[in-house]
Design brief:
The chain has about 280 residues and is α/β, with parallel strands linked by helices. It has a single domain (about 1-220), classed as Metallo-dependent phosphatases (Purple Acid Phosphatase, chain A, domain 2), CATH 3.60.21. The chain has ten helices and ten strands. The protein has helices spanning about 15-25, 45-55, 65-75, 80-95, 100-110, 145-150, 225-230, 240-245, 255-260, 265-280, and strands at about 1-5, 30-35, 60, 110-115, 120-125, 155-160, 165-170, 175-180, 200-205, 210-220. The protein has a five-stranded mixed β-sheet. The protein has a five-stranded mixed β-sheet with strand order 4-5-6-8-7, covered by helices on one side. The protein is globular, with a radius of gyration of 19 Å. It starts with a strand and ends with a helix. The model has no long low-confidence stretch (mean pLDDT about 95).
Length: about 280
């Protein structure tokens, strides 16, 4: 019998990741898998990799935010796009602070993985088999989207992330699809749950080609402690990071708010300089 801890979407939230991994350590799991989006918009950097290493996380696949970081480093951004400035300014601040080993690890992350455990073939994706972004696999989307996720008939279980919502459902063929939710950035739609910022993960127990249990877990932590971490290091857009925990608002694609940020013009110049300097390396 094997118990697998599955987690994803930390988004720079060190406080939440530390709390979740402390709980996983009590579960006596056989292995822990991470489905991507470790960094940003929270301030966590090398310390996040350290937590994953201490938890012996051997499998880490690439999320869309890892791709965004790498795209920013290649200068694949528009200086006229507030969302690109938002991302690139955070990358310009965080990436140079990462160790060379972790910079290299980011560059080499696999897009997906297939594991065989107790005779079951398990596919690991951040989003789907061909792209790790977009809204096609949010829980309210069409069954056809989830069938497409499971089009590899050799897979018994598919693990996916990205939607920041915990769920289990089936393909039309009966394959099991599991989303562990998000460690650091829950998307809360129902008004009654607006203060539920717990770190999320899932435990999947398999034995002799059978799923014995799927458990969705939530771990409480103090969001104010995480906000204080961001402010202490004067992380870019830390005021918007704080507002997420107060009003459950995400500003990644909110061009109007980003453009009106009091430091926006300064951040644009910082991004220009970073891209120029980084391009010389």
């Amino acid at each position: 019998m094997k118990k697998i801890a599955v987690l994803a979407d930390v988004h720079g939230n060190y406080t939440a990741l530390k709390a979740v991994l402390a709980e996983i350590a009590k579960e006596k799991v056989n292995t822990t898998w991470f489905l991507g989006d470790l960094l940003l918009p929270g301030p966590g950097g090398d310390e996040l990799f350290q937590l994953l290493n201490e938890a012996q996380v051997k499998t880490y696949i690439k999320g869309n935010w890892e791709d965004c970081v790498l795209a920013a480093l290649q200068g694949e951004i528009s200086l006229a796009d507030p969302s690109d400035i938002y991302l690139a300014k955070m990358v310009a601040t965080l990436y140079p602070q990462l160790s060379h080993a972790n910079q290299t690890r980011l560059q080499q992350l696999p897009f997906s993985a297939i594991k065989e455990v107790e005779g079951l073939r398990i596919g690991l994706f951040h989003g789907g088999p061909e792209k790790n972004y977009g809204g096609a696999l949010f829980p309210t989307q069409a069954q056809a989207n989830f069938d497409d996720l499971c089009r590899d008939d050799s897979l018994d279980i598919v693990l996916t992330a990205h939607s920041h919502q915990q769920f289990m459902r089936y393909s039309s063929q009966g394959q099991v699809i599991i989303n562990p939710g998000t460690v650091g950035q829950p998307f809360i739609h129902w008004s009654g749950f607006k203060k539920d910022f717990c770190g999320q993960y899932a435990l999947v127990t398999v034995h002799e080609k059978q799923i014995r249990a799927v458990e969705f877990k939530k771990v409480a932590y103090d969001p104010a402690e995480e906000v204080a971490r961001a402010k202490k290091v004067n992380f870019p857009f830390s005021d918007l990071y704080e507002d997420f925990f107060v009003n459950d608002r995400v500003y990644t694609h909110d061009a109007e708010v980003l453009r009106q940020h009091p430091h926006y013009a300064e951040y644009v110049e910082d991004v220009k300089k970073f891209l120029k300097d980084y391009g010389k390396k």
